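@channel sequence for tomorrow's demo:
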Amino acid sequence: MLRIALWTVRARWVAFVGSFVSLTLGVGLVATMGLALAAAFHTPGAARPGLYGAAPTVVRAGDVPNVKGRKLTAPRGLDPAAAARALALGGGAVRDRVFYAQVLGGRSEAEIGRPWSIAPFAPYRLVAGKPPVRQGEVVVPVGDGRPGATVRVMTAQGPSVYRVSGVVAAVGSRPALLFADTEAARLSPRIDAVVSRGPGGKAGDMGADADTTLDGTKIMLGTAGGICGFVAVFVVASTFALAVAQRRRELALLRALGATPRQVRRMLFAEALVVGVIAALLGCALGPVCAPLLGDWLVGKNLAPASYEVPVTVWPLLVAFGTGPAVSLLGVRTASRRAGRIRPAEALGDAAVETGSMTPGRWVVGVGAVASGLWMMNDPDGATSRKQYIPVAMMLIAGFAMLAPIIVPPLARLVTWPLSALRGAGAMVVRESTLTAARRTASTAAPVLVTVGLAASLLGATATIDGARRAELRDQHRSDFVVAPDGTPGLSRAVVDKIRAVPGVDTLARTSTTLLATEEGDQVVIKYPAQGVTPEALGKIARLPVVAGDPARLADDSIVVSQEWRRKVGERVEVWRADGSKTALRVVAVLRTGTGDNGVFVTPRNAVAETSGLADLVDVKLRPGTDRDTVRAALEAATGGLGARVVATGDWIAAAKSASGRQSRLGMYVVLGVALLYCAIAIANTLVMAAAARVRDQAVLRLAGATRRQVLRVVAAEALLVVAIGVVLATQVSALCVGGVVAGLAGLTGRFSVAVPWSPVGGVVAACAVIALAASVLPARAAMRARAVDALGTRE
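structure tokens (generated this afternoon):
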């Protein structure tokens, strides 16, 4: 049978084109995503210059401070006793202090200040002027001023005017403003490190402050690779099933001539292996071409650091190559078993009419996939996680596709019911052809189901979650204005005080921080985002989803938590602040978990700032009788030139959600874009295969008296009907998937809302319809160039 398989592939290559194209593109997708993901794991993070490039010995609080493996997000400084011991080492030891400092209107990237005595160890090279020796002097990086000029420097305390005594160039170190040692000690009493030329410390490391910006890239590429792999397996299996179904007459003849079921299966497996190996070779050749293009796009969209490059790596190509034969063999397995069960006596009859579309294995897989998807939706805590709703969508799509032969007939009757009221034979032919060939219809509708189902499910789930987050953000900020940073990492204390001094308003300054708490018997440390706020202002401006307790009772010894903490009012919890300091706080209120953002509140004393004591923003709410325009003018006058801007709250919310969701949206477009492009090609490929098998049917219509235009209308109607069936199936899948997200969000937030991205989903449906029409009508029109009698005698 192997020799027959080879002869069949060579002589009937047209019959294998559809499977070959699908498989080649699928392997190419796997290779591209594999190479990109491998590059993400081997590319160093977007390393920024270190702090101690030329320091032989550094004593600091820890290069990577952590609590039970969890990294801290704010510097805690060097213990005074450790600093004293380090200074006793001698060798010209100096104290280093790292704090927020920025030249307002400057052109450098400097956002830190340090004492001048650290300059030789960083190192910083003086290129003009002289070192700072007095309190009002500063040395600035190149681009922030020139010697003798005056600059406004913003620190955590507020703005001050300094005279530029010199200009430095950072040599392999982070740009910084350098102050006289006494001035640096006044601005930041905390000692961050002791640097010495003496023995006993730890050498400086240029990479100590490297940023790991590739985590999001890895997650995105991993998700995209998983979806692309699912789509490839799904489409290839569907294409192989259609190809085998179209060869039923040929297989039936083999059975009639004495071929055993095992021999038929072996022949089909051999054909699939040959096609799979050749397609895998070509697909692996596509990977090294497409992967660098994907890498450049990711860098261009700031989804990966500038250092990200995609070289050719062996193991992703080996995995992709193995995928080709494996997927082809899996794709032909079910079809070959069914073909092998044809009895010689009924072979020819079974080749002409479809019967027994559902096998026991197909029932088990289909029902199991749907049940698994529905079961996965029972976890409300994971409703907002891609780790839940993406697998749910894939399981439901796979299950509906496996059950399509039993779903399609009643669905086709429903969709084609309006055709039964129309006059003429064309509507009857379209309807009966669809109902009679349920397996063929299911196979051709499968790519539409995947395409529209993925688009509607994932985009719908993302839009619904984003809508819930926007609603939560509106409740958190029930103010009239928001004063946000403008060119600075945060708002200084002077800016906050000026805003509070504006008459006729209530203000709420928010400081982001991180708290760490233990779970599961103190074995697991969880990191929670939190906000430092004043309790009385919080109650006036924010509407919190309180489950128990009273947030107004928040004090320095207490905390407001979400249900995610699994704590009760009155219970004491031990937490670590962002700098690693530990404290015990009493729970005074429990909030709904929500979408996971801003559900924990502490007082400013417990909110160790992650940006050198700067506030993130200030909410401003008008008191009754206060004029809005007057307040806005006063706010703009108070904050002008201080690195702050006044924004209407609604505009700020829209911009904040747009900025925060940018990477998520672009990542989703990567995930969907590649998969949908493949699905679009699969739709065209499948319908071209189906059109080639319908040449004889179309010839019969022409001999029965139908004109060429009437036949083309029938072909177009059948193509649109297939798209309609696929869209209806996809609608059911997306309704279940998005419904699970909505139910989960209702439990987490107490709200019931659905967001449907009609425009992109409608665009995907329209694209499917256009592709289906082109892939069906154009081959049919080309086939009708021959005489109907000649076409009727054409062998399949």
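heads up for whoever presents: The chain has four domains: 1-46+211-353, 57-196, 362-470+653-796, 488-642.
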